[in-house]
Design brief:
alpha+beta; Alpha-Beta Plaits; eight-stranded antiparallel β-barrel; 6 helices; 31% helix; globular
């Protein structure tokens, strides 16, 4: 099983088209051969972690039966071609799931065929949560400053906030130099630990998922930077 995550930065003037795709593209994507799971995601301001949406940047996460199915999609699929034609830049990572627990809309798309953990090399982390509406103000009060602090973490290559629905269905995707760098941040950053404790104690989420991946390779850029 292969997972891919693409970050799509659109050209100016296509925001209305992109918003329409959030409703019209998923039925087409579900018919793509070899595609097990996919989700189009929006992003927020301030590199995805802001309250207000960024109408020029979107994400697409997908799991595939075979690497060849993913390659065929990115080479020739009409829906992907439409995004590519309207994009200023695209970054795509190929990922092998190492660990996955929790649920995304009732199931875990990354469970099952987990790869053996490697000793070196970059890793990616995806966290996704459905936030209880009454807890959303508390979530946003704590998550924005915590996410801004993440940007300065040692060993961090990329971090972006993504979401399915504004305010209440949110995800964070990050790429790290190594599993050790990621774990050092997770266990030692005071603000991060505080948020984790609050989510458990106050029951912020109705559903949550955590997944860790080996980064097999990546292509393209984010904000003009190569993220390897």
């Amino acid at each position: 099983m292969l997972t891919t995550l693409s970050l799509i930065t659109l050209k100016p003037g296509v925001a209305r088209w992109a918003l329409a795709q959030m409703a019209t593209a998923p039925p087409r994507l579900r018919r793509v051969p070899g595609l097990r799971f996919c989700q189009l995601l929006g992003s927020g301001a301030a590199n995805g972690f802001g309250f207000w949406p960024n109408l020029q940047r979107y994400g697409l996460i997908a799991t595939w039966d075979r690497a060849a199915d993913a390659a065929a999609f990115f080479a020739a699929d009409p829906t992907w071609a439409a995004y590519s034609e309207r994009s200023h830049e695209i970054w795509t990572a190929e990922l092998a799931p190492l660990q996955a627990h929790g649920a995304w809309n009732g199931s875990n798309p990354f469970a099952g065929e987990l790869a053996a953990a490697g000793g070196v090399g970059p890793v990616a982390v995806l966290t996704r949560a459905s936030i209880r509406l009454r807890r959303a103000p508390r979530f946003w009060r704590f998550i924005e400053p915590t996410s801004r602090a993440l940007a300065g973490a040692e060993g961090l290559r990329l971090a972006i906030g993504l979401g399915e629905l504004p305010l209440v269905r949110q995800a964070t995707f990050s790429v790290w130099d190594s599993a050790q760098a990621m774990q050092q941040y997770a266990y030692r950053d005071v603000r991060h630990r505080e948020v984790i404790q609050l989510t458990r104690r106050e029951g912020w989420y109705s559903e949550e998922l955590f997944a860790r991946f080996q980064v097999l390779k990546s292509t393209g850029t984010v904000d003009g930077k190569v993220i390897e």
